[in-house]
Amino acid sequence: MVGSFSTINGFGRAYAAVVDTVTGNPSSWEPGPISTVNCIAISNDKAYLGGWFQTIGAYMRNNVASFNTNTGDPTAWNPYASDSVYVVKPYDDKVYIGGAFLTLGASNRSRIACVDSSIVNATSWDANSNGAVRSIVATPTTVYAGGEFSSIG
User: Fold this and answer.
1) By the 8 A CB rule, do 98 and 85 touch?
2) What are the pLDDT digits (tens) for 95-126?
3) Cα-trace Rg, the chain
4) Engineered SS bond to 104: which of 74, 113, 117, 119, CB 3.0-4.6 Å?
5) E strands along the chain, which residues?
6) In angstroms, rounded to a whole number, what is the distance separating the alpha carbons of residues 65 and 32?
7) What is the distance between the alpha carbons of residues 52 and 153, in angstroms, rounded to a whole number?
8) What is the DSSP letter of 71?
9) pLDDT tens-digit profile of 3-44?
10) CA-based torsion, 25, 45, 115, 55: positive or negative
11) CA 92, CA 75: separation in Å to the nearest integer?
């Protein structure tokens, strides 16, 4: 669960938590973002978070981060989005990211990008949206995006 909160069922958890479906209590996982988390996506053994934060615990992670779901530890994956991330969509060995950013790492990517899931380099795919991207669905041949834009691609 993600959002703008500081407690869950009386337990201190800020902005992101894993919650037991029976008790409603949070697990011991505390990723420690310092501000709002907008989205979470799970793929295999990774959880991806996107939002408006600069750190996750003691780690610099600008607006997007991933965690090992078995250990709860942050991974080395760090695409560094220049502004808010609203959606993270893992698909195969890629991760599609949408938001309000204009750069991702060293690459100019206007509000939507595709990143390698293991080495964080932006791929050559550059859809170039003129407004915020808030939803993404990926298929083997097509990426669908929704948001506050009038032009993309």
Assistant:
1) yes
2) 999 999 999 989 999 999 999 988 778 999 99
3) 15
4) 113
5) 7-8, 11-12, 37-43, 46-51, 55-56, 59-60, 64-68, 85-91, 94-99, 103-104, 107-108, 112-116, 133-138, 143-147
6) 11
7) 25
8) T
9) 889 998 899 989 898 999 999 999 888 888 889 999 999 999
10) positive
11) 18
Q: How far apart are CA 132 and CA 120, in angstroms?
A: 21
Is the separation of the CB atoms in 40 and 53 below 8 Å? no
Report the residue count for the chain. Answer: 153
Distances from the Cα of 77 to the Cα of 51, 94, 112, 131, 142, angstroms? 15, 12, 18, 26, 25
Q: Which residues 6+ apart lie within 8 Å of 41 measured at CB?
A: 47, 48, 88, 89, 90
Cβ 75 vs Cβ 68: under 8 Å? yes
**Listed residue (153, 131, 130) closest to 142, CA to CA:** 153
Q: What is the distance in angstroms between the CA of the first residue and the CA of the last residue of the chain?
A: 32
DSSP 20: -
| Residue type for position 110 | S
Across 23-74, where does the E strand assignment appear? 37-43, 46-51, 55-56, 59-60, 64-68
- Are the beta carbons of 85 and 64 closer than 8 angstroms? yes
